[in-house]
Amino acid sequence: MSPLIRHPAVSDRRVSRSLREQFCLVVRTVPKRKGRVRVRLIIAILVLLLLIPFLAFLYKQSHPSGVISLNLPFGKAEAYNDILVTRAVDGDTLVLGNNERVRLIGIDTPEIHESEKLQRDSRRSGQDIRTIKAMGQRSYAFTRNLVEGKRVRLEFDVERRDRYSRLLAYVYLPDGIFVNAEIVRQGYASLMTYPPNVKYADLFLNLYREARENRRGLWQ
Description:
2 domains; 5 helices; 15% strand; disordered N terminus
């Protein structure tokens, strides 16, 4: 018996009808799925909005100081309000416990390392390099005794880093001593003002003049 041969037109009509039925099924199903997803998303957002005030209340109860410290397994954020100074590099540069370097804003101490700046300072001031380095060692010793091994709080100005990727900061000890200002006040730093980081420029200028007039530190 020969196989049944269907007329092409009949076969096409059946295929076309089958495709139409599948299309209608998809059209009827997709909006329902999207609708369910939309409802779930709205519910999730409402739950989150309701939880935020409660979580904020719990945070305030457990952190009365209002200080936020993030401990993430990736891209760890450092809390610069309480961080260790592991060492002083020189009179105006520090290394923190996270290995970042901090350049103290607004002040400049004599160089103790060979550098282009050391050469420039020698030409500008007329002092020989040995004298500048000796003064730099005195400034370095003062800064080291003031902050090395102690925990500090950093305050930032307009710019957070310099072109060498060092943090630009005002540094405070736990007892409230303003490190940048204290170095100037005791006569171990000149001024270096770079706009827009000028928050305490007037204070530093007054302290610098007072140190020079009273022959403190390097100005003896």
